[in-house]
Amino acid sequence: MAYFTHILLNNVIPLTIMIAIGIILYRAFKLDIKTLSKLNFYLFSPALVFKMLYESSLSLAVLGQTLLFFALFFAAMFLLMEVVIRLRGYKGGMIPAMRNSVIFYNSANYAIPLNQLVFVGDAFTLSIQIIIMMMQSLLPNTYGIYAVNASKRNDMKQTLRTILTLPVIYIIPIAFLMKGLHIPIPGPVYTPINYVSDAFIATALLTLGVQLGSMKWTFNLTDVMLSNVLRLCVGPAVGFLIVLLMGIEGVMAQALVLSCAVPTSLSSVLIAVEYDNEPEFSSQAVFSSTIFSIFTVTLVIYLMKFIG
């Protein structure tokens, strides 16, 4: 019950308030959602990724094992989504929209506080979650954008040019290089980085609110609920199976399974809005999965005591 209350008060309600503010601002001022999504892609998200990687404590052993787990988990969920997509007969933009809503999950502003709550500020489990966050920042900005544009049969050369303009694909190696070489960042430079990274969560949630405010609210209940079940229930179950297959035990196994249990990423909405690809479905999937995660994440936390 304590976990349920904490997730509700510290994750879901604050997120819902920010989303509600975005809805109100759109209704009052008709904010330009394209501008908001560009700010997230090109400014706020790269700053957050850089800061977290630069400040983190990652060992090569943990990095390698976590990356292997993530690769196996991503491949398993991707194959599962291919089966679901074929069985449901999705066409056009709905294919990447449904896939993105399941394989991209909120590994930063939801999963990191959750990790620190469950493991009581453990630096080891935090480093695991930061590695997952790194990959969940990189993939939407590469594969996610490619898949959306491929479904629309857009010029692939132009799509690749667009991907290469995204700062996050350069920020990750730069952060690791600067950290590895112990290159200090001058205070006058690091202060703006802190300001910008702190603005990511608020701006991303406001963007979601603006998108929800502009929708006609024609609920695609079946597809949204299917996305939620795959993300919140099947996701952690697949993560648990991969942990067993890899022979990972103890707190690392628990941290990896917990990382798979969080709701759909805001990145799926930002991609949908930026490239006009099923933004209503994507927004509904993010919003509803965040609400339902109160119950599913609490159940996963309870079941984690039986892991390793």
Automatic annotation (TrEMBL):
Pfam families: Mem_trans (PF03547)
Primary residence: membrane
Keyword annotations of the record: Cell membrane, Membrane, Transmembrane, Transmembrane helix, Transport
Record carries keyword Cytoplasm: no
Spans traversing the lipid bilayer: 12-29, 67-85, 117-139, 159-177, 189-209, 229-248, 255-273, 285-304
Domain of life: Bacteria
Subcellular location: Cell membrane
Membrane topology: Multi-pass membrane protein
PANTHER family: AUXIN EFFLUX CARRIER FAMILY PROTEIN, SLR1864 PROTEIN
Sequence similarity: Belongs to the auxin efflux carrier (TC 2.A.69) family.
Protein name listed in UniProt: AEC family transporter
Protein source organism: Paenibacillus oleatilyticus
Lineage of producing organism: Bacteria, Bacillati, Bacillota, Bacilli, Bacillales
